[in-house]
Design a protein that fits this description.
Blueprint (H helix, E strand, L loop, with lengths): L36 H18 L4 H11 L8 H7 L1 H10 L3 H14 L1
Helix pairs in contact: 1-5, 4-5
Length: about 110
Amino acid sequence: MTVTDATALPAFDSPADTASGPNGAIARYTTFKGIDCAGNIARVFAHLDRHRRADPGERLIAYLDRQRDSPHGAQRDDLLLLHSLVNPIRDLFEAHGDTAALDDLDRLERECF
């Protein structure tokens, strides 16, 4: 199998199928079939927008905004951006006791990261 041989990668359709792969090894490749990652991303950004309105000087949100608006570098990837900052985002939501935001962040992390 070569890295470029996509047909050699196992495809699984449900979490139950990911328990083990060939020869009992843990399967690391799953599909996102049926998962609303775009919706999960939008919900987390909606929480961040709410926090921006409550505290316009929040540095983490200002940084996220600059990264999303930057014309430089790779094409904007909101999932990658949230993934790379998941711990500071979690800290922000925890500091404000925002359980709804934490629930949505947990769902995004569990389903899409």
